[in-house]
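Changelog note: in this version the structure field was regenerated for every chain. One regenerated record is shown below for reference.
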Amino acid sequence: MHKNEELSSLIGDVYDAAIDPSQWQAVLAKTRDFVGGSSAALFSKDATRKSLNVFYEDGALDPHYRQLYFEKYVKLDPFTTGHVFAEIEQPISTVDLLPYEEFQETRFCKEWARPQGLVDFVCAALDKSATSTAMFGVFRHERHGLVDEETRRRMRLIVPHIRRAVLISRTIDLKSAEAATFADTLDGLAAGMFLVNEAGQIVHANASGYAMQHGALVLRAAGGRLVAIQASAATALNEIFPIARRGDTAVGTKGIAIPLRARDGGQYVAHVLPLTSGARRRAATSYAAVAALFVHKAEMEAPSLPEAIAKVYNLTPSELRVLLAIVQVGGVPETAGALGVAEATVKTHLHRLFGKTGASRQADLVKLVAGFASPLMSGRRLVADNDHSIDGRAMLGAAAG
């Protein structure tokens, strides 16, 4: 298949998975092959709790090592903390988090990655909240080599479409949408849903969508056309609907998380899903619709605790890993063991942390982190090095929750 046709077909499959999640495993296998890798997954990570939640995967990762990762190695994985540095849709690999030579010396590399022949990992953030980051990622085997510019280019081509599909899938939360009952199935959604033709005419709206347009707080109907109250959003929608008739590739990355401002100042988000390609054509044939528009209220969340600290003090991913480990487990030997690196490496990063934060003791670093936590945590106790006045794990765990 020609490369452009291959990409177009893949994008169509990705959007089909937005309304039929049972297709995600097969779609991830195709994206893995497109990007170049041995396995792929959609997942979220929490840097504070050092936890992982896998939503969908291609099933190619060795089951034994998959279980080991959850039981032990997720806490040693540099990406578990480093993902807070990921910008939405921008690919990052191992060398973006720490020098590759340093990665090779970690227990994570020696005990988990290397025995499987894995040499690298490339991922991109799809969505971020105060507690976690949703991501798409691909493992690289020895036969694929380290992540290079071509790998990053292919990630940039497909990631925006995966992001749109994931955001829509999260909004509609469907097992499947049969063609004959597509609109009926969507009628019960809390999010507003509109089926529109290429002129932006509303051919169907669910109950939430009808209430939105009737109240004219965010959207209104003008001569049967769907119009956003905010001028910039109205222009964006006017451009997308005619293009949607030409399919997924024509729409490209437009229509992903369009911000909508309501008359009362409230913030909403809109996602446009083309219906003229892939299996979705069957779902909208009866309605002469070219696109489905999903609208929901935006959840305004503050940055995560680790992300906020890293930005204020301009910390590198390695420095942030050491800082959080110092807070959670204590001194240099304990931190080195928890991270799976040499004590000399921890001391090097600790020295740089002192320089960037102005702290002079490990206990000062722990108090610094406590200062970023909620005021409700002021009564908690933190432990750092030989200072037993503070309990870091309690503070970080509560802050994450």
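Spot check on this record: The chain has three domains: 3-172, 179-297, 305-400. DSSP finds 18 helices and twelve strands in the chain.
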